[in-house]
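Appendix C reproduces, verbatim, an entry submitted by the partner laboratory led by Prof. M.T., so that reviewers can inspect both the input and the predicted structure.
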Amino acid sequence: MDRNQLCNSNAERGISITSLILVLAVLGVAGIFAMRLIPAYIEYNAIKKAIVNARQSGGTVRDMQAAFDRNADINNVDAITGRDLVITRDTGEPQISFAYEKRLPLAGNVSLVIDFEGTTDPSGVVAEADGASDTQAAR
């Protein structure tokens, strides 16, 4: 055996304390993001299911809004209400669309902003509310 092989076989192996701290910090930041994002996406999926149920309930626009509100109350949806839905009847069948912005505080004055939107329209085009362009211009 030569000297290099002997020295290498006696070398310690493992992770240093600095590497361990760095890995734990990265996992901690990823955990914070996950704890903030997962409830927002669960709420988004509840809203998508609620608009499908509201569309299936049929009736007038107000009936569909009330059906959405009932479903939203059951699923603890706070992001939007039935009045925030855009209901169109372009092809005779009612189509329901929604769009909203969710701000998730991360730390101090740092926030994550996510734009959610969805529709029951098979084309996937989200209808805009009549006053949406005026609201955007006022900001």
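Helices lie at 3-9, 17-57, 61-74, 132-138. Additional entries are available on request from the coordinating office.
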